[in-house]
Amino acid sequence: MKALNVEGFKLAVNNNAVILDTRKSEVFARGFVPGSISIELNEKFAERSANLLPAITSLLLVAEPGNENIAEKALAKTGQWEIAGFLEGGYDSWIGSGEPSDMIVDVEADELMMDIPFDKNLIVLDVRQETEFADGHLKNAINIPMQELTDPGSMANFEDGHNIYVHCGGGGRGITAASLLKRQGFHNLRYVAGGWKKIKEQEKAEIVKETKALN
Any bridge partners for residue 189, and if so which? Predict the structure, then answer.
């Protein structure tokens, strides 16, 4: 696996390689190479990569320095991808070279509750699985499970004027989903920190269930 300096990394991106950022999701959210997909390097890394990146053949890795080979070995288990290389020095080298970056803004669950009544363009996007959604979700929330966001068609009803608030159950799926949305050009979005775990604790939360889906 090649260690690429910033210029080499940019050249590989221009050759249609997809950037996979394996850092912790909360670290990714604070700053990342534009266009990156966030899949945190943990026990679910290989499984999520296989589910989210099936049609991608060439990957570029951004990792915490020293973790590149761990990520590469996990990806090699499936044999689905060519690893075009990794960013030498990690994200810090990208920033140190003066390159542009992107970020994901987060909000607390109580901020979401305050915004819902006053923002007609607000959309709550719940990226949990259908059974999780059916067991309890915010009224009027849209459910698109995280893995379905790899299909641009799943976002067909989103418009530039929409303010998208993304949440998952409470882990890193929401950040991954936000990175997929960003990659498709939707930048007016927020990640709800703590996800459903925090949302359902809010007094103002209107929670509904889909009983038919649970039976």
Answer: 164
